[in-house]
Fold these 2 entries.
Entry 1:
Amino acid sequence: MGDLLSVRDLAVGIGEASPVDGISFDIAAGETFALLGESGCGKSMTALALMRLLPNVARVQGGSVELQGRDLLALPEYEMRGVRGGGMAMIFQEPATSLNPVVTVGRQISEALSLHAENGGERALELLSAVGIPDPRRRLDEYPFQLSGGMKQRIMIAMALAGDPKLLIADEPTTALDVTIQAQVLDLLKELQRSRGMAILLITHDLGVAARMADHVGVMRSGRLLEVAPRGRFFAAPAHEYSRALFAALPENLPKPAAKPAPAAALLDVQDLTVHFPIRRGLLQRQAGAVRAVDGVSLRLAPGRTLALVGESGCGKTTAGKAILRLIQPTGGRVSLAGSPVDDARIERVRRTAQMVFQDPYGSLNPRLRIGPIIEEGMRALGIAGDHAARVGELLEQVGLTPAMAGRYPHEFSGGQRQRIAIARALAVAPKLLILDEPTSALDVSVQAQILKLLAELQRHLGLAYLFITHNIGVVDYIADEVAVMYLGRIVEHGTTEQVLRGARHPYTQALLAAVPRIDGKAGERLLVPGDPPSPSHPPAGCHFHPRCPRATDVCRGEYPAATEIETRHFVHCWHAER
Amino acid sequence: MMGFKFVLLGSDALLFALIAVAAVALHWARRQDHLRHALARVAASGTGMAAGTLLAVFLLVALVDSVHYRLRLEGAQDAYSVEVLSALDAALMPLKTHTEKTYSAPLATHSFAKEMREGGEWAYPRLKYGGARLGDDLAARPADVARSTVLGLALGGAAWTILWLAGVPLRRRWPKAAWKPAFGALLGLLLAAGPIAALAQGYHVFGTDKVGQDVLYLALKSIRTGVMIGTLTTLIMLPAAVLLGIVAGYVGGWVDDAIQYLYTTLNSIPGVLLIAAAVLMMQVVIDTHPDWFATAAGRADARLLALCAILGVTSWTGLCRLLRGETLKLREMEYVQAARAFGVSRLSVMLRHILPNLMHIVLISLVMDFSGLVLAEAVLSYVGIGVDPNTISFGTMINAARLELAREPMVWWSLAAAFSFMLVLVLAANLFADVVRDAFDPRAA
Amino acid sequence: MFAYIVRRLLYAIPILIGVNLVTFALFFVVNTPDDMARMQLGVKRVTPEAIQKWKAERGYDRPLLWNAAAPGIAKATDTIFFAKSVRMFAFDFGRADDGRDIAREIRGRMGPSLAVALPVFALGLAAAIWFALLLVYFRGTYLDAAGVVLCVAMMSISGLFYIIGGQWLVSKIWHLVPISGYAPGLDAAKFVILPVLVSVVGGLGSSARWYRTIFLEEIGKDYVRTARAKGLNERAVLFGHVLRNALIPILTGVVVLIPTLFMGSLVIESFFGIPGLGSYTIDAINAQDFAVVRSMVFIGSCLYIVGLLLTDVSYTVVDPRVRLG
């Protein structure tokens, strides 16, 4: 067999548990093998076991790992060090923490070079150019904190390439990155693989990423490999029941919820909302500028309908959501709820009308309180009369839990159950509007599907309106009636889901949609935007998107474009929208 | 029968209050899920249970030593001795009153220093109490010591057996706790204490100091001072540190500025100097108002409390800053934001959401500070800004004995006794603190 | 950076005023000068005349805050507060209660204090880091476990016993160095060795254990895994990556102490007869010389504030992420 890597019956144990329970697979030279699975399935542990970098508590309990015919598990540690970075290299999920914060980028790369190659200095520059870092000579002397997340992941890749590895293990390499940056990094990996004939073991939870990258796909659950298949066959006809369940749980494959009420008078009306955080400098701490987190956002949402606020990290979507509820003090603009303006004097009515569900199911429940008091808190604070205990039981049933759970503590629940509890807490004061801040982005795709279904069902029963803040386009398609796309504190495109997702006119929206990896593996019309989003403290003059926009002209550099109405209620802020 | 009346010194009252609060807190903690788990982790730790047992014995000694009373003067109806005694003094009565003239070595029958006899010759005088039961039969001493030791070991073993049997329901109630190390430590302690107690009936087990006081008695009395300083100091500073730390972190703005200013200012004064200045000043106050105190013990107690308060002020800032920092982090937690979205009041957020998530830090720092404070007392008393010179403490013992190693021949027993008692106390405290920290720190769990 | 330092120095002013008020309250409000005079004179010689004389000699016979009897500006300046507290801002410490000039004493005693404190600081830091690194290198083995137990045992022994034991063993049994005393110039070395050694050993347990925790925390971080994935050996990981990051909390934690080294160590100096500021302070405490204690409090606070500033500056030196603005 010409296999580069051959894994047989690999098993890893932590105490009594077996996170990797006897898995076998092969990777041929130059191909990409995607190890696919949900969190806790043992896929990262497998990667670490291959590198022999397991945490202290974990032990390899059996099996063999052969790289080019050498049994890695039998090598003494000092020879294994030659394999790491030489025969195979690894990049990790969190570029932000995976680089040494106090050592320059150049030194971190040349350190790897000095171990595995000669003439470090020039090679470091070459590597930086190879991974597409602009102005590489200057970057060598910079520290990781001076680079964006995408840049850091490119540096990690450059470091991994230093020893000219035959196999690159990429552990969720783009999970921490925004979708447009993810597209850049995935393209880079493909390009490098082609030019160097390098094999890639790609660890991912994302079917789309696997479809875009892999030659072979292996599906893992509870430490076992359930199915290994070539990409084409896997995506056309997944053999294992669990694989099929994964496909079925994708938002685009969920049955669409029933028709929503037609747009009526606005429940939520936001006009020119701004949130500027001051930047203070100098001797007297004068205000030297501002971070324009939210810079003039207007939204309308009718009862019973869902508006998705879409954007990449740092675009201000979460800040906007919190500013509507006055969890962050807005610096300008008007918000009115159910016809009456939101201000500090009428804040109590706002809190009965609108509530929020947060992103992190682990940070949003006080670990020291039982579920009952957590759900009851809003009713008590707002002085809502009635039998609170009975209402808690009712709410728990409504979100698919049992009333008996009220006596338990948050740590006894899984992430999905916690998110249900957080929804029950918000519903306790019978609001008309829920602001959902990335409610499913911390969850596995199968759990996400359950939460999305629950949300749709609650909306139908209770007539709730949702302001759904997310970066996940697939979820938007499932749940939203209307979509607003945010970039650098402003809304660049706004319309119905159909209009925006299938008739996008703003180049940023188009790039965003094109960057989403699709499970049919088709790239579609590729519109790769280069670079990173600029800082909201120094937005570019003119149209904020022009430095990254392929269609930018002089007029874009001069002035911010006003709204253009393409069709009824489909607005675009772009000088070239008519094209 | 001799009459007596109880005397409740300020520090006694605080110590009893502290024990009561701790008991209530423990009872409450057992009903809180996460605290019960943390307590179970402490109980399951061998080191924790062994060190905890030793600490409990020390605490018991301190408690017994905190039951104070005054004897009625003989023949008087309503006049009491100015000397304040404690229950421990009563238990150790022979040791307390059996003072020799000056130094004598452990288990000695003769004084350490020669003395002029009537005949004009220099000789080591016989001790008044040490080995007195031997009479003139000095050759019988080794046999007597051996007999007492064996008797003591037997007594210690018997006492342990009784305790072990008495512990059966405890072990049945909490079968998962590490009882073996706990009873092991207890066995070791009793096997050491038994012979000491038996020998102390006839000898000065650790010798006598310069003025002839029994060193064993001094060492036992020092325990209370150490425990008082170690516990009351933290207790005094705790409410202020918790309140100001949380308020500064959660409310922010000018309140935060003011609290930060307060603790930076207090922190910028070198600790020892602030203590020195404050203790000197308190001493002046105490000395210029002799009428405030009925007894010398009351005066010494006032100084002890003042020292605790001042130590509290100097160590307060660290905890306050720590809590402020943690509160700043907790304030951004999503469950706090969720509470704000319901309009839950600030006070309620601080009480329900911030404070319970900080309690482990408070508890850990309380336990961690104990050993440091016991050590600090020794240094401060040595420097002369610690407890009252008449209060028996490790510091005053060491201070009195500091030059004894330079004598020829050397007098080592006072220092050795202070050293061993302190080492066992502080080591047990440090080991226990480690276990508590590991058990209560959510990051470790 | 410059603006930051200026702002911090300006912030030091209210703190020093606060310190001054605290000491003023402690020394003159809790107790009146009359109380102090009575203490100093002793029970036998207390007469109203003697108290008046004692106060007049030392300038304590003025009103506390406001001298209504004095003319013009002297209403505010001819007071105890101004004479004894405000003038300290100009580093005018006046005279000790025994009549000697405090500023001159301080200048003369700084040298001996530093001769002990500086080596203690440098050697203590180096020894603790070295020991902690050793334990971390062998982490998870019996050597590490034994080392931690040793640290806990060492930190459970009172510093006084290190001094007493060190003096007894090194000076009395081995006769290696004098038991105490001091000589200026190079002769100081033989007097300084023992106190330095004792202090370093005495402080080793707690600092080494603390640094070990910091190192272990760093070792768990992602970038260490990256370094290993490059194929670096354990030593290179420890020295090239972990040490650099762990030094940030360690160094910035101890920088605040550097200025206060001038103050010397109370206990060490008094045990070893070093004529530094520590023993000066302790003598003043024992003689209840309030003027000296007050001055030392003020100087100590100034040095602490300088230390805080140095801490902030040191962050910018060791951590590229920190920029003061």
Note: The interface with chain C takes residues 261, 264-270, 272-274, 276-278, 280-281, 284-285, 287-288, 371, 375, 378-379, 382-385, 394, 398, 402, 405-406, 415, 419, 422-423, 426-427, 429-431, 434 of chain B (CB under 8 Å).
Entry 2:
Amino acid sequence: MGIEILIVDDEVEFAEAFAERLRLRGFTAGIAHSGEQALRIVDEGAVKIMVLDLKMPGMDGLEVLRRVKRSHPLVEVIILSGHGSEVDEAYGRQLGAFSYLRKPADIGDVLEAVKRAEKLLASQA
Amino acid sequence: MKANELAFFGKIAAGVTHELRNVLAIINESNGLMADVLVMLKETPFPQRERFQRSVQKIGEQVQRGVEITSRFNRFAHSMDDPCTEVDLNSIVTQTVSLTKRFAGLQNVELKSALSDHPIMLFINPFRVQMALTRAIDAFVRCMSGSSGSILMLVRESVDSPGLDFYFEGESSDKVVKGAVEAFGEWREFEELASILDLRYDWRAPDIGMALFFPGVPTPERTT
């Protein structure tokens, strides 16, 4: 089974613990530690939802969002960042982000966003 | 400090709080993972289960505390971004109380605020206003030290004279304000900042320790 939720975050410990928590809840979760790696994984075709940090070395989250929504418009992107400003949030939504959460987020809030994204994806299928 | 120096300091401070949020996020997810495992093992005999559960809960609570502290400091750091900006007086008062209540608490003085239901927008330097309010509070707290009193800051939403009223509970207003004015350097700093910001104040208003008026707003006649 491919990756359905891709966590994109350069903080390795965060991404691993977060992915593990999603897997415990039955999701198929993968990890990318850079924007470039994330785009390669998305191109493989299995990713449905991306949980994306904004500030990363190299390609930043907003650039990843822009490219993903251009090449794979059906992938829903949830921004999860400790860095974002209100301007970043507005710009992220303008670029097509599905939801915007601040780190550290309650797992319940993340799951709620994931479920809403799944529902939207199902309605588009 | 010059405006560009303040902005630089604010940028560095904001960056540090962002990094701290990443640290808190890692602690939060690692702790959440432990909590998940404890739930999975709920039917399995597990020595010291309650101790683990209590620790997980305490870590979660402290993460939330850390988030609140870093959020407050982050907003404070961003108040240095622009020399002057449009800002809600309610936000300035909330922010000032949250950043200074610990210092007041160490002197047994509680800081309280009563906000307006509506935004009161001012075009002002938010960092300097917070500094002025903090210096005034410091001066008042020194005079109230050990008295277990409180300072209430009430946002005044009158169209003609929006501002901030300071009430001193458990202490004579006269004693607190006069003591602050006469004895301590913090008051001198407040006065200097008030002059730069064009803040006016009236400390002889009846039943109010000090009434503060913001720029462009007429100060009522003093009541003596």
Note: The longest strand of chain A covers residues 76-81.
